[in-house]
Structure formats: structure tokens, C-alpha cells
Amino acid sequence: MPHVEAIAEPADAAQRRARPLTVCYPVESLPKPDMAMMARARQHLTKIDEVLVGPRDAEAFHVPAGHFFRIIGVDGPQVGDLNLWNAHDLSERFFSGKTRQLHATHVSTGDRLWSSMPFLRPMATITHDTLAWYGWDEDGGGIHDVIGTRCDPYTNRLLSGGDYDHCCHSNLTRALAKATGLPVKEAEMHVHDVLNVFMCTGFTRDTHQYFMKASPVRPGDFLEFFAEIDLLGALSACPGGDCSTTHSSDVAACYPLKVEIFRTEPGLLAGWASPQPSAYPRTHGVAG
Question: Which pTM does this prediction carry?
């Protein structure tokens, strides 16, 4: 272990620690999704497409605005890493950090997935979560996090010295390249931090390190979204399987995931409109 110089506590240390907290982003003024409308609409769904994501692989899919999609456990406990883009502009993509700030470290029904700046608008709203019962466990773990990134070959090489090409980062890169026709190295630049679907994670209470533990997902469980804009998505079936022991290896038992896409009756979406990008003029305090 590297030597760390001990720092003495000041006399008023307890007083400083006892100062009250402030939630960084009061969200009372956030535009609220019409969950009642979405609840009615999801009662009349017709499946129009499905995509099967093989173990240790990824697939891309399209969801038109005003449609629903589900990520579904199939044969066994498996977590997935989700990327989302504006189907017409890859520069607008899911912003996990802002989603975390506006909602929480883990997301569920009623939370929204926000896009990157300068757009900053809802890309999708979570409309149903069969794992919502899990809540928070005694370790502080929860489901569907926006705190972790995705397993990647660069960190794998940094920590192990070896190369592994079926990390979620690589899987998502291949899927996006296949869907868009972009060269793989160009596609990689659009891959971004993920929603860790079905993954059970938190921070240890002593060292505050990011941890993972066995996901409670079972075949038939699903996370459902309403597409607020036209979406291009990519989902990786993580090489860690249920992430109970490891990732970035061929050791864990891995299973497929499925994406199902649904349309609803258009009349049930009366009054809904796809959200517009942020109206901030992007002047940043610089005149003319």
C-alpha cells in the first residue's frame, strides 16, 4: 500500500461534519411525465418487433417516438448495459450523470433518461419495472444504476494486463458500427456511460467503493420504457452474467436478453408531444 500521510482532525471537525445537507438539484420544477396517460397507453400494446441479444454480445434496435420498449430477462439471471441515441443525430445521447443528479443513483418507474447537452431533454420514461419490489438491501444495493460505467477493454488491460474483446464497451461499439455502417473506431467514440439494467450495485459503507452483487432478475422480469423521441438503442448482455462474482471474462454463466418494441393506439397519446431540446441559446456569457 502506498504511504499516506496522516492528517490531524481540526478541533471543530465534529461541527463541520454535522452541517446540514442540501439536495443539489431541487426537482419540483422539472416537467413531469404524464404517467396516467402512459399507464392507459401501455394497456393497449401491440408488439411490432423484437431483438434477441446473445450472451457476451450486443445488438442495436430502433424505437419510434411514442412507442414502448421492454428489456426482458430470458433464460437466466443476466444484466445488460444500455446506450441510447437520438436516431437522427448521434451527438445527442443518454447522459447518465445528469440522470443521476436529477433522479437518483438507481432509477425505476416514473424516472426519465435525459440526453446530453446542449439538448438536455427526456429521451425515455420508465413506465414499468418488475424489480421495483427490491428497493434497497442491507448492503445499500439497488437495481438499475446510473453510477457505474460499462466494463471495457482499457480498464481490463490496466488491471489485468490482458485483452478481452467482449466487454460491454466493445459489444456496444460493434453493435453501433453494424447498425450505422460507421467504422468501428468511429462508432466507439459515440459509445457512452450506460444504464446498468437489472444490475444490483451500491457503495461499500467502509471504503465507499462501487460494488456489485448477484442480480435478482429472473426470466420474465422486464424494465419498460416510453420513447420520448426517435431512439436508436444498443444493449449489451454483460460478460459478467448476473455480476455476482466477476465481469470482463468468459467465466461467468451468461444468458440472452430480449428487447421488445410495442406501439399503442395513437388516440391514447392525445395531448402528448415529443419534448423539444433545451432552449438555452448557447451564448455562455459571450456577446454576439
Answer: 0.95
